[in-house]
Amino acid sequence: MKKKMNIQLSENFTYKKLIRFTIPTIIMMILTSIYGIIDGICVSNKVGENAFASINLIMPALMIFGSIGFMIGTGGSAIVSKTIGEGKKEKANQYFSMLIYILIIIGTIISIIGMILIENITILLGADETMFQDCVVYGRTLLIFLVPFMLQNCFQSFLIVAEKPSFGLMISIISGVVNIILDILLIYIFDMKVFGAAIATGISQLVGSIIPIIFFARKNDSPLKLIKTKFEFKAICKAFTNGSSEMLTNLSLSLVNMLYNMQLLKYANSDGVVAYGIIMYVGFIFIGTYLGYSIGTAPIIGYHYGAKNTEELKSILKKSLRIIAITAIIMTSIAEIAAGLLASIFVSKNAALLEMTTNAIRLFALSYLISGFNIFASSFFTALNNGVVSAIISFLRTLVFQVAAILILPLIWELNGIWLAVVVAEILALIVSVIFLISNRKKYNYI
After folding, report:
1. How much is the average pLDDT of 10-17?
2. Dihedral of CA 306/310/316/317: which sign?
3. Of all helices (H) and strands (E), which one includes residue 371?
4. DSSP 3-state of 38
5. CA separation for the pair 51, 43 (Å, rounded)
6. How far apart are CA 85 and CA 155, in angstroms?
7. Closest to 314 in 3D by CA, of 302, 323, 326, 301
């Protein structure tokens, strides 16, 4: 008898099965982070620290444009997995196809608008004369590839609903390898500088979006397939509402990153922007672990919610909180011990910047003890089709609490206050997450 390899959403999940199902998505998020790090290393070491600072300055704006992909992917996957759980597979495929087509339309419009406004956006972000041109070149080039970027983010969630997390990982590996090879060719060999880095990233995103389109457009053995569909306004609104927390998270992170850069220019000049850019690259690996687990478990939660299997919901929540707690201790310890090594990968030639970055990583890394619980709580409510609660947690965590901390703490601790802002924001967000988990326990019966 042929051994069954794919774990299905309908199964009862043990710790082992839960980890097996989510590990491809976790690895996918970590690899995506590593590819971004290699981008940064290539630019900082070959093109220079000023070019590296330029990329980090414009990147938050690009993430704002791309956040719709996260919104449609997470919000849409919650609806689609719930619909599959209710036994309505044809309707689920209609929803899935409709959301992909909408994403392509919206992405094209935003891409055109972004390319027109990129110079004004660069000025608004505070770029000086030495950074302006690199910001514009990098930003405009990646905006050409905005639709593939949005699709790549969206398909990450839908491949899990399709019970193909390992296929999603394979796509991530392929697109990442393309990115690395092109980085080496375009930056080191052809000396195309920031433009080469942008082209390398854009083509890798194109590869990462075309493969799943081909898979879903053809006959396949998954629950999902791209089909002819009609636009249903109610379903679109529900998907956007469900995914609003993830969009808010990305919007907020981008806005907060801009505020971080402005404060750092005030307290530490361009070196502060470089140090923060390194923290973001390094942090993506640690936060990516939490995101990967949350994205990986969301379709499972959505399916069992749709199937009204409350016992499995209770089991998944309990197991997930334990897994996150153990992971938080391990990852925070690694970040604290390896802070100097991680910083030296980017800035080994500048002793003062190396010292600043090492200290920044150690302070910032304290947030990893808490952030996993908040990320999972927000994702948990998205999977339960409660976009409002999910959005509130994300909005407070990534925007309100962080903005307040970034503005207030430097007045007390100066530069260290900026690095500790995220820690304070995560602590406050954890209180909110616990309140919502307790107050909604009877509504969903997950405790």
Report:
1. 88
2. positive
3. helix 368-383
4. helix
5. 7
6. 19
7. 301
C-alpha–C-alpha distance, residues 245 and 159, integer Å: 20
**What is the DSSP secondary-structure string of 153-197?**
HHHHHHHHHTT-HHHHHHHHHHHHHHHHHHHIIIIIIS--HHHHH
- According to the model, what pLDDT value does residue 5 have? 52
Higher-confidence position of 19 and 78: 19
Q: Give the burial class of 192: count Cβ atoms within 10 A of its Cβ; 0-12 exposed, 13-18 middle, 19 or more buried.
A: middle
Q: What are the distances in angstroms from CA 248 to CA 74, 355, 392?
A: 12, 33, 9
3-state secondary structure of 128: coil
385-407 b/e with 16+ CB inside 10 Å = b?
bbbebbbbbbbbbbbbbbbebbe
**Within a 13 Å sphere around the CA of 98, how many CA atoms are in the beta-carbon half?**
22
The label of the residue with tokens 């999910």 reads 390
Q: How many residues does the chain have?
A: 447
Q: Residue 320: name the closest of 369, 384, 380, 365 by CA.
A: 380
Start-to-end Cα distance in the chain: 39
Percent of residues, the chain, with pLDDT higher than 70: 98
Residue with tokens 């909110």: 432
Q: How many CB atoms lie within 10 A of CB 419?
A: 27
Kindly report, residue by residue over 241-290, the tens digit of the pLDDT: 888 777 777 777 778 888 888 898 888 887 888 888 889 888 888 899 99
User: Is 106's pLDDT higher than 60?
Assistant: yes
Residue 402: what residue type?
A: Q
Place of tokens 């300055």: 57
pLDDT at 49 over 80: no
Report the predicted TM-score, pTM, of the whole model to 2 decimal places: 0.78
Write down the residue that tokens 């307790």 correspond to: 438
Tokens of 213: 């389109």
Q: Is 225 helix (H, G, I), strand (E, B) or coil?
A: coil
350 three-class SS: coil
CA–CA dist 117, 111 (Å, integer) = 10
Question: Which residue is listed with tokens 């992917």?
Answer: 73
**Res 4 pLDDT > 60:** no
CA 213-152-343 angle, to 5 degrees, is 155
Identify the pLDDT of residue 396: 93
Average pLDDT of the residues in 124-148: 91
Q: What whole-number distance in Å separates Cα of residue 194 and Cα of residue 149?
A: 18
CB count within 10 Å of CB 185 equals: 14
The mean predicted confidence, pLDDT, of the chain is 89
Q: Which residue has the tokens 């690895």?
A: 27
Q: Is the pLDDT of residue 199 over 90?
A: yes
